[in-house]
Amino acid sequence: MSSSPNALPSYLNPDDLGPWATYLEQVDRVLPHLGRLSVWADTLRRPKRALIVDVPIHMDDGTVHHFEGYRVQHNVSRGPGKGGVRYHPGVTLSEVMALAGWMTVKNAALNLPYGGAKGGIRVDPGQLSLSELERITRRYTSEIGIIIGPDRDIPAPDVNTNERVMAWMMDTYSMNVGATSPGVVTGKPLTLGGSLGRRDATGRGCFVVAREAMRRLGMELKGARVALQGFGNVGNAAARVFHDHGARIVAIQDVAGTIYNPAGIDPHALGKFLAAGRGTLLDFPGIESIDPAKFWEVACEILLPAALENQITAENAGRIRARLIVEGANGPTTPQAEDILLAHGAIILPDVLANAGGVTVSYFEWVQNASSFFWTEADINARLDRALSEAFRAIWDLAQERKLPLRTAAFVIACTRVLEARELRGLYP
Ligand code: NAD
Which residue has its alpha carbon closest to ligand 1 atom 37? Predict the structure, then answer.
């Protein structure tokens, strides 16, 4: 068996692979380290299932608009698909495929009993009213209802989706199957079977792996300067946890602009300011607004991208001064940028480890739903800390032993698990 010449799915434009190209290159980099299992490489290069759905809804003005939605199940060899749903005008099939591929790797790196999946709708949710948002969510959920379910594929929040969207997804699925089914999505409101600790889990996880790396590198956490891109679910929580442990948030960038304060920005106060609708990031008192391009040059020890993919590129990587890059976002660093950063001695904590806190607590939520027995927040945070510290240790040790970048080490551990499962299950029929 060998890698087939048509490993690239024909439904993608080979000249514009988007984020899928980054994912494929990361897979290519791990293959030499997989031994005989590399014969199954095409399993990683082709999603198991990619569903494209038309999502027509009545707009408030009485017209009908059609949106394009996706749900990709990249791999389900180790368990049901698991991964978030993104609402963004830039969503494409290639992007959803890459995000689903990274979920396969992430879930296996953490040894969660899941495959990898992801979904999305190409829409700017900022242009929708609340009732339009509800209708688009319900219709999308009905359309992908033929492949999701608590034992098949379990969506969760991602960019521009949240607990409220998850509540509508859970309700729509439940109405369609005729029974309340909390386990079909995670990241739900607490009242509907959500888990304590889920809201901050991804950001908290970023902190846990950074803390572990800093211990190994002899870096001081107290006073460490952090520059953060994205102040949403991930960035906001990460900023608070870093701040609460003595680090200093010196720069934050979001869609509105970039703010800087070398003395430190209080993320609790900023979060409250934004939630109260008192303005954008740029209106927050006591900060300096800087040119967004200068964000990458800010003097800091830790850079934490928590927005979108392809943000750290060959163009800006050479200007980054941080020693530690913590990938809160999925796919924020292009392979070319990674090479530049590594050559400069930076340490990259890869997305498949650094932002795995969210799916880890999603797993806890799913387990709690299955048993209808709920854990305390302290218990969840302790289990999260243990799971991430252990995954970090395994990846760090393998990287040291084989002299590999941390991303490749994470992929070696994860892809070995995925391909062993693939081989043991065999091909049916
Ligand atoms: P979110 O919608 O809550 O927040 C996104 C943030 O990014 C916002 O602050 C937005 O202003 C900012 N942003 C968007 N485009 C930007 C740009 N071009 N430049 C600068 N800032 C920009 O999304 P989120 O859930 O926090 O997700 C952020 C990233 O983390 C994504 O890559 C997502 O896949 C990843 N992630 C999220 C979770 C989760 O639990 N939500 C888990 C793992 C990974």
Answer: 158
